[in-house]
Design a protein that fits this description.
The chain is of the alpha+beta class and 80 residues long. It is built from two helices and four strands.
Length: 80
């Protein structure tokens, strides 16, 4: 079973998670449609998820914000 962390929940109940396969560490996005949509979970490679449509989608912005938390250097700080 993949480990996952919620990235974004839309007002209509769709959920996006950042998932990681515990065996090999590969990361991906999981989309879980809301119950009324009746859809199945889908696994999306990170590059494909970020390439879909506009970077203005809230679930894409949530992933980019999470990635940004991994950087300790301020955006305009010295680079080493």
């Amino acid at each position: 079973m993949a480990e996952r962390r919620e990235l974004y929940r839309s007002p209509d109940g769709d959920c996006w998670y950042l998932g990681r396969e515990p065996v090999d560490g590969n990361a991906f996005v999981i989309h879980q449609p809301n119950g009324s949509a009746g859809g199945q979970l889908s696994h999306i490679e990170l590059s494909a998820f970020l390439a879909e449509g506009s970077k203005a989608r809230p679930e894409q912005r949530a992933l980019l914000r999470l990635i940004a938390t991994l950087v300790d250097v301020p955006p305009f700080g010295p680079r080493g």
